[in-house]
Amino acid sequence: MISCRTSKDRMIESLYGELGPTDKERFDEHLRSCPICASEYSVLGATLRVMDRRERPDPGPAFWDGYWDRLSRRKVWEEAGEAPRTSLVARLVRALSGIPRWSYQAAGAAALLLVGILIGSRVVAPPAPVSTATRGAMESGAVVQAQNYIERSKILLLGLVNYDAAKEDAYAFDLGGKKTVSRELAAEAPAIRGALNARGQKRLRDLVSDLEVIMMQIANLGSGQDVEGVELIKQGVDRRGIFLKIDLDRMGRDARGTVDPASSSGESKLPKKNKI
Amino acid sequence: MDERSLIEGMARGDRAAFRDFVEQYKKKVYYLALDMVGNAVDAEDISQEVFLKVFRSFSTFRKGAKLSSWLYRVTYNASIDHLRRKKFVPEPVGDEVLESRSRDDNAGLPYGGAVDPALAAESSQLQARIARALEKVSPQEKAVFLLRHYDDLMLKDIASSLGLSIGSVKSYLFRAVRKLQKELGGSPLISGVEASHD
Q1: Distance CA A264, CA A261 (A)
Q2: Is B154 left (phi over 0), alpha (psi -120 to 50) or beta?
């Protein structure tokens, strides 16, 4: 006869049919003589039967049919992204391996000297007044950065507003990827807004602000495809007149003759519903 | 394609063998990841990561080992890494949220519209309770339970998949079932039988 402790050790194996015939016989014999172990065994068995009724959500045939294609695409992207990085590191290691030790020491000393001069010039010398030309350059740098931000956000938003859940493959839509990009864009926005502090940049700053809010909404969409969330964002984009503001900003820039970061990448596509 | 042919093909870097391998195991890998991380988008991401990792590091696959065991281990590790990266702390989820989640899940079922509302509500509540019970189980216990209960892996195969001793697997499994029992204690299917025998 086995003890209650041994019986407890064997409950799981017995429940899953993994006890050998002799052990099973001894185990059953113990249960017949021990109502407490028998009761515990019965409760555990009932728990497993409840767990049998668990349903796992099936993502549907479209998901499974497109699985291989999505995996293949990712493989291609990752291979394309990794190859240059690996070869660059390999090249650097190879290049450094042939240099004698004294040259590292000399380079180190020169770098230290340079750092010393830089620190000295910052601490001892009074800050030079920012000239009008420098300020102008800083401002135009901020504007170019903002325009770049707007173009990247626009591309993401076009993908979102042109998506039709009823007609297109939900998984090819790649909401996960869009969420990642929008998270990055939302994180970049405060610095860009902060740099747009000159007079006459309020409209641009407001547009970046609007886009930042939308990017945060996209980044916080729910798991799965969250069709309802996407629809709400589309309505928000529409309500705020985001594409109109972007187009107005672009027209203003064209009139002023400012460099357009998107002009080299070809004409951008209007959302389907805005096409005339 | 049988396992041996798959292994030989993949060792040669044969794309067709890799595709067969993916087709054969995609559901198991996806569902294990989904059960571990609880998010469909992340589960797909993890499952793809697993297949690409297997494809790239196939040369490290030990000859004579079981392909599925290796795959489960890679999936389990990828899921745990994901949870760590996200510093995942399971949030207590209320009944109403779980029930609505369960309703949403059922909405996509082919017979969704034809089910008796009372039965659907009951099933929805049960699914919510099961989901909440599983959230109380640790990742290790959960992985062992899922592999034994839903993937029908023998205890020794789970031990080899997760790199654990059989004793640890039994212990994790027992603890998982006890925790589930405690959480599901009010279920009409379980209640009525008391068990407190240590």
Answers
A1: 7
A2: beta
Residue A93: which H helix or E strand, with range?
helix A67-97
**CA distances from residue A267 to A148, A155, A257 in whole angstroms, order as listed:** 15, 11, 17
| C-alpha B52, offset from chain centre | 19
Residue of chain B nearest A76, judged by CA positions: B52
Number of H helices, E strands in chain A: 11, 0
B21, closest residue in chain A (CA to CA): A68
* Chain A residue with Cα closest to B195: A40
| Chain A neighbors of B127, CB-CB under 8 A | 54-55
Mean pLDDT of B37-58: 91
What is the three-class DSSP state of B80? helix
How far apart CA B118 and CA B101 sit, in angstroms, is 17
Q: What's the half-sphere exposure (Cβ side, CA atoms, 13 Å) at A27? A: 20
Q: Do A40 and B177 touch (CB under 8 A)?
A: no
Per-residue DSSP letter, B90: P
Q: A80 — phi, psi (to 5°)? A: -65, -35
pLDDT tens digit string along A47-81? Answer: 999 999 998 888 889 999 999 999 988 888 887 76
Nearest-CA distance A176 → chain B (Å): 6
What H or E segment, with its residue span, contains residue A115?
A: helix A101-124
Instruction: Supply the DSSP string of A18-84, one letter for each residue.
Output: -S-HHHHHHHHHHHHH-HHHHHHHHHHHHHHHHHHT-------HHHHHTHHHHHHHHHHHHHHHHHH
The tens digit of pLDDT for each residue in B87-129 reads: 654 444 444 444 444 444 444 443 344 556 777 787 888 888 9
Between CA A239 and CA A267 the distance in angstroms is 24
Residue A96 CA, chain-centre distance (Å), reads 35
HSE-up (13 A, CA, CB side) for residue A224:
14
- Taking an 8 Å cut-off on Cβ atoms, the answer to whether B193 and A78 are in contact is no
How many other C-beta atoms can be found within 10 angstroms of the C-beta atom of residue A139? 17
Question: Do residues A171 and A70 lie in contact, with contact meaning Cβ atoms separated by under 8 Å?
Answer: yes
Residue A157's pLDDT is 84
Query: What domains can be seen in chain B, in order of their start residue?
Result: 1-89 (1.10.1740.10), 91-135 (no CATH), 138-186 (1.10.10.10)
Contact between A40 and B197 using a beta-carbon 8 Å cutoff: yes
Question: Using CA atoms, how far apart are residues B15 and B12, in angstroms rounded to an integer?
Answer: 9
- State chain A's maximal CA–CA distance in angstroms: 96
